[in-house]
Write a structure and sequence with these properties.
Blueprint (H helix, E strand, L loop, with lengths): L8 E2 L21 E5 L5 H16 L5 H6 L2 H13 L7 E7 L2 E10 L9 E9 L8 H15 L4 E7 L3 H9 L3 E10 L6 E10 L4
Parallel strand pairs: 5-6
Antiparallel strand pairs: 1-5, 2-3, 3-4, 4-5, 6-8, 7-8
């Protein structure tokens, strides 16, 4: 499976995995790469995820919740995940432009009630809005798929916002298609929800 170009999808916020950087804004880099996250990446990871949530959910979240979407809060959650991983199959990857972290992807076993052995999930995938269209999303997705295959996953699932056509098209170009599952995800303390669809693809053997 290979990926096309940069978009973002967001799922659960727990992951596993081990140079620091900050989000780069709009400058292509010949030294673009993806690697497992390290503890000193997490401040920049928090910056990227805060920007992604504001971009994706800004029209549906209350002002109170938006005010709490700060980089430090996201970084604390990732630090807890890195130091107390849910499982050995969870991993956090970062995309870098030179020394700067510009994107993240997290993978792990699927926890859906209908999941079977061998189902992995793309828990989070995103590139800072100002660093898109530079191939970072494609590199992240390819690395995430490889990480799932290394744990023995035979299929990948991803939950995406139902109205994010660009994200669905990005993942569809990499082989992920709707499998009929959908859910209402609570995103606000007042019970506000967003509708998500699940995409699935079979993974080739390694």
């Amino acid at each position: 499976m290979s990926a096309p170009d940069d978009h973002s999808t967001h799922g659960h916020d727990h992951t596993h995995g081990p140079d620091s950087g900050h989000a780069s804004h709009g400058q292509p880099s010949a030294d673009a790469s993806v690697r497992p996250a390290r503890l000193n990446d997490l401040a920049a990871v928090g910056q990227v995820q805060a920007a992604l949530w504001r971009s994706s959910y800004g029209s549906v979240l209350s002002a109170e919740v938006l005010d709490r979407l700060d980089a430090a809060a996201f970084a604390r959650v990732w630090r807890e995940s890195l130091t107390s991983a849910p499982s050995e199959r969870h991993q956090l990857l970062v995309a870098r432009a030179g020394a700067q972290v510009v994107g993240l992807a997290a993978v792990g076993p699927s926890e859906d009630r209908d999941s079977e052995d061998g189902a992995g999930e793309l828990l989070v995938l995103g590139v800072h809005p100002e660093a898109r269209r530079q191939g970072h999303g494609s590199r992240l997705l390819n690395a995430a798929i490889a990480a799932l295959q290394d744990t023995g996953a035979v299929r990948v699932r991803a939950w995406v916002l139902a109205d994010h056509d660009d994200t669905r098209a990005f993942l569809a170009a990499a082989g992920l298609e709707p499998d009929g599952a959908h859910r209402a995800r609570v995103v606000d303390s007042d019970g506000r929800t967003v509708r998500e669809l699940r995409l699935t693809a079979e993974l080739p053997g390694r």
